[in-house]
Amino acid sequence: MTEASNPVQTDSPEARRYNRIRRWLGISDFGMGFVYLVVLLVTPWSAWLRDLAYRMGSQNYSLSLFMYLLLLLVIGKGLTIGLDYYGFRLEHQYKLSTQRFRSWIWDEIKGFLVGLVLGSVVVELVYFTIRQWPQDWWLLAWALFMVLFVVLAQLAPVLLFPIFYKFEPLDNEDLRRRLVMLGQRAGTRVRGVYRWRLSEKSKKANAALTGLGATRRIILADTLLDNYTPEEIEAVLAHELGHHVHRHILKSIVVQAAITLLGFWAANWVLHYAVDQHMFEQLSDFADLPLLALVSVVLSFVLMPVLNAYSRFNERQADRYAFESIARIEPFISSMNKLAEQNLAERTPSKWVEWFFHSHPSISRRLAAAEEWNRTQNAMPQL
Ligand SMILES: [Zn+2]
C-alpha cells in the first residue's frame, strides 16, 4: 500500500459545489420553517387559524386540533415545496437520481401523510396531557412520547421504510455465510440482512442497521450489493455489525430521551411565560402550538453539533469494530473510496462544516484511521 504516503485526495469542484448547494438547501428549509413559526406567533394568524380550525372541527377540541395541525402543515408544505423540487432537480443535475417525477410526487404525498399521522398522534397526546394534568403535563407527555418513539423505532423497518422502498431478504449465500462468521466471532447474531431496492430512486449507495429486538436488521442497498466485491460488502457489513455490537441504537434512544426531557421542560417554561404575558389565555389554547414547535426547532438546531459529534463517535467505534473483524484492511479502504465517488461525497469538508453538519467522520478521516490502524497492527510483534 502506498496510499499512506500520498497526499490527501482533494475533492472535485463538482463534489464541492453539489455538497455546498445541498447544505444551503438544508439551511434554507430550516430558516423558512423558523420564520414561518415566528410569523405565525407575532401576527394574529395563529389565532385566526385556530378559529378557522374550530369551525372546521365543529367546535370539538380534538377534531379542531387535528384541523389546526392540518392547516399548519399544508401551509408549511406550500412554503417549502419549491425547495423540495429544487432538491429533486439537483440530484438529477448531478446524475445521482434515477427517480421519475411521478414517483417523486408520490413520495412527497406519502411523506406528507406519514408526517400528518405521526404529528397528529404526538400533538393530540401533548394537548391531552396539558388538559388533564396542567401542572405535570410535560413529564407525562415526555414519558408517552418516549413510549411512542421506542415503538416506532421497532416498527420502522417493517412499517415505515416499506412505504418508500422495497426490501427483500438477502438471498446471497456467500454473504450470509460471511455475516454468520462475523457474528460468531463477536458472539452475537443479527437476525436479518435485507436487500434494499434503492436503485429505483437513486444511484447512491448506502447501508444501515435498523430496528429493535425482533425487527433488528442490516439493510444493504442494491446499488452497493451489485457493484462492490464480496470483501468490500463484508467490510460494510462488519461496520453495521459494529453498531449492533456496541448497542448504538439503544444508546441513541437514551440520548434522545434526555434531550426530549429537556425539550418538554423548556416547552412548559416557555408556554407558561407566554400565558403570563397574555399571548394566550391558557396552556391548552392550541394556537400556542407554533411556540411548542419553535422550542423544539431551536433546541435541535443548538444541539445539532453535539448530536453529530456523538454520532461521529459511534461511527468511529463501528469502523474500529470493522477493522478488527475483517481479515484485510484494503477492502474497507476501497469500499470507502467507492462510496465517496458514487455518492459524490466530500472527502475533505472544511472543519466547521464537518463539526456542525456531518453525522459521519469525513471519508479522509475514516481512511486515515484505517491506515493508522493497519500500521499499528503490522508493527505489533507476532505472538
Ligand atoms: Zn455507521
Walk me through what this model shows.
With 383 residues, the protein is mainly alpha-helical. Helix content is 71%, strand content 4%. The chain contains 13 helices and four strands. It has helices spanning 13-42, 45-56, 61-93, 101-132, 137-164, 173-186, 222-225, 230-245, 248-276, 289-325, 330-342, 351-357, 363-379; strands at residues 167-169, 192-196, 207-210, 217-221. The chain has a four-stranded mixed beta sheet, sandwiched between helices. β3 (207-210) and β4 (217-221) form a beta hairpin. The longest helix has 37 residues, at 289-325. It is elongated, with a radius of gyration of 23 Å. The two termini are 24 Å apart. 28% of the residues are buried. Residues 1-7 have low confidence and may be disordered. It binds zinc ion.
Q: Main beta sheet: strand number and arrangement?
A: 4 strands, mixed
Oligomer: single chain
Radius of gyration: 23 Å
Note poorly predicted spans. Answer: 1-7
Strand and helix order: HHHHHEHEEEHHHHHHH
User: Within the largest sheet, what's the order of strands?
Assistant: 1-2-4-3
